Description:
This protein has 364 residues and is α/β, with parallel strands linked by helices. Helices cover 40% and strands 16% of the residues. It has 14 helices and 13 strands. α6 (148-158) links the parallel β6 (142-145) and β7. α7 crosses α10 (264-270) and α8 (208-220) packs across α13 (321-334). The longest helix is centred in the C-terminal third of the chain and has 18 residues, at 346-363. 42% of the residues are buried.
Amino acid sequence: MIRIGVDGRLLQGKLTGVGKYILGLIEFIAGNINDCEIRIYTNREIGCAFNSSKIALIRDRKRFSMLKSMIWSKFFSHRITNLDNPDIYLSGDTFIPLFLRVKKILSVVHDVAYIVTPETMSTLHLLISKVFFKSDLLKANALIANSKGTADKIEKYFKSETDVIVYPIIDNTFLKLDEEVVRAELAKHNINYPYILSVGTQEPRKNLDKTIKAFLYLKRKGELHNYKLLLIGGSGWKSKKIRKLVSAYSNDIISLGYVEDSLLPYLYNGATLFVFPSKYEGFGMPPREAMLCGSKVLVTDIPELKEATYEKGNYVNNLEEGSFGNAIIHSLNGGHVYSREELDFSYSQDQKYKLISLIHQLVH
């Protein structure tokens, strides 16, 4: 029996893209290794349900729930982890507890934002990354990267090789749906207008302010008529400016905040265009989800987002109002919608099974 321990910090509360990645990863492992059990260590409630009986929750004593999850994970989680004695400790974001004593460590690297875009990070997260990221990464016996772009940056900045690249495992509910079904579902939420969609936490790295300004520029020019800009995602660090813009133009910009995953496929299907001009991503799950739902996509021209969109999206470099606005109009008028059959899954499938082989190698 292979026992795999997992830091549950990333699965707490409403799941972000990283949390969804880890959930998909552990459920794939549970479904493809017969003799395994996966133990989730946490100090707080987990924000998701598990589809496999092989996954169990190990929660620390109640008094530790008062600690910030990052503080608990780094300085206190070793107590229950060492006692449980897993064969492999899976670190969901390279973050490894101090005083951890386990046989093997398998770490996932999602991005190197603290090097590439440090200005977009909160002071606390930037400080912790500067202190611990490199040393934690080098402690790992094997590395998973979420994209080739991330793997290239691991080699560039840390001179370390990635053992396997595993793209985010996208739920099979993200697919092209019948138009009548989509319209009926959106009508339940009073969405009965053409819209441009953007999905992501409202924080500086996502460039939402530039999306909003380009959209308003086009509205002033009379080029989008009845269109609205629909924003999906919770408030993050430095989101005050975004909230002010949304409030000032509430007739044209609608922020739905965090929505349930069950609604997302309908929102992607109903969008005339999906826009995601992020400064930097380790991968970029929303653009891929949007493409699988048959949406045209416009993303920043960076390697990781080109990977996420199969190099078949629309790309933009200049995010000034006029240039970005022109790219939006060009994408609306000329962007291509791809069928699922036109999108290549072979590499992704191959790499996932390489992960299973890697886990067996670490244990044996």
